[in-house]
Structures are given as C-alpha cells and as structure tokens.
Amino acid sequence: MAYITNQAYYSDPNNSGDYQYVSLSDIVNNFMLMYVGDDKLIGVTKRYNVLFHAKRAIQELNYDAARNVKVLEINVGEDLKLVLPPDYVNYARISMEVEGTLFTLSENMNVNYAQAYLKDSSDNILYDQNGSVITGTSELDIKRIQGYPQTLFTGEGWANGRWGWNIDDYWYFNYDLGGYFGLNSEVANVNPTFRIDKASGVINFSSGMSNRLVVIEYISDGLENGDDDAVKVNKLAEDFIYSYIKWAILNNKVGVQEYVVRRAREEKSAMLRNAKIRLSNIKPNRILMVLRNQGNWIK
Question: Based on C-alpha coordinates, what's the Rg of the chain?
C-alpha cells in the first residue's frame, strides 16, 4: 500500500494490517522497472508475460509456503451436501461446531455417494433433448441421507453413556470399529465423517451432520477469484516472486545460456526457502515453551 498518515490508517478500517502486503500491480510495476531493459538481464519482455508469471508465483507460494488459511462457517442441510468455496484448493481442517467448541471431522472413504442414471420400464437409459443422460438421486445418497441419527443412551448397564440407535423402543449399538481386534486409525473418531467429491465440487457428510454448523478451514490459491486488484503478497515473500518471474522468463526465452537459467533457478529455490522460514513465524520463546516439557520424568 502507499504511505499514508496515521490518521488515515486508523480512520479507514480497510487499511488495517495492509502495510504488510504488496499488491500484484506493484509487483509487476517494480519488476518492469528494475529487471526489464536493454541493460538488464531480462532484456525486452511484455507486461502480460510478467503478469502471468507473477500469478503463477503467487499460486506456488500459497501452495507451498504461505498457506493462508481461510475460514468459512455454514449450516449443512438435510441433503448432507456442501458446495466447496469458489477459491478452494485444499482443506486444512473441517470441524463441527457444538456449543462453541469445534470438533474435528475425519475424512472417511466409506461415506458413499454416486451419480444415478434414470431408466425407463424397459431398463433403457433416458436422455434429454440434447442427448445427455438424465441423472437422479442415487440409492447410496438416499440411504446415507435417511440414516437414523444416533442418540445418547443413559440407561443402566454396559451401554450407559454410549451412542446408538433407538428404533421402535429397541436400542442398537455399533461396536467401535477395531475396538476389540485392533484399531483402524482411519475411522477412529466418534464424530461424523465426510468425503469430498472433487468432480462435483461438494462435500458429502455422514448422517450425523444433518442441520449442524460446519467450519471449513481451507487453502486458496491467493488469486482472489480473478480480481487482480485484490491480489496481495506478504512482503516477507516479495523476493521470491521477483526471482520466480525472472527464472520463468529466462527459462522460456530462446538463446539464453543454460548456466544463466540454472543460476536463476537456484536463486528461486533459495528465495522460496527464505520465504518459508520467514512466513513460518517461528519465535524462540514459543520453542522454549515446548522444550520445557522435555525434562519431565515419565512415571
């Protein structure tokens, strides 16, 4: 951001914390000014080339080093499906909110979902006027959605305090998977589970998540849905962006010596390591607090 007075900074909420970032337009302008020219290593290049490689550098930075986690809370409906955010790349954690506390959910590959083709009475697949297959709700989705919710048993006996199903005044309990014959760590969680359908861009939850609040912590590519004016990079990683652009342009240019490209690649890798260290926000006092427990005797 441009240098502003303290009064302008504190009076406008949009300026809060903005000084630690540099905008995409400033990155491109700085690179064109300092790295492009007849007496520079890059020589002549187009602005749109620099802009393209700058965006790729920001994506790589967010995937590997910055990992700026966005948080979204939304209520899961009775269909147990949740559309992924538009800038979603990967999830960091998906949690269920219960009375102000977040309970981490586990990804379970056994959460079933499918796409069903509709057929006529002669078992022939139905098509629309454009020749595409007509789809409907699958039996797997129906059974998953209509699954009986578990309730807490508070009676006497070994099942007191266990979750189960009360059907027609009879209680049914599911033994913890692996509870007696070895633990299956994949599903070792009493909370509901989920499975991400990447092709459809939705999250499918187990029946216990119906009408519950879910909190999704996910990683974005940092390009803010294509709005170049809103794209910003932390200043601690600014050198990596410049070195990535320089390497990408030299690597795709004809007639550049191999040692020049190799040197630019090594510089890019070094700047990425520096960015990781800087953005990791490691503080000596935090490390000291963790190491203090190393001296405890295990009884």
Answer: 27
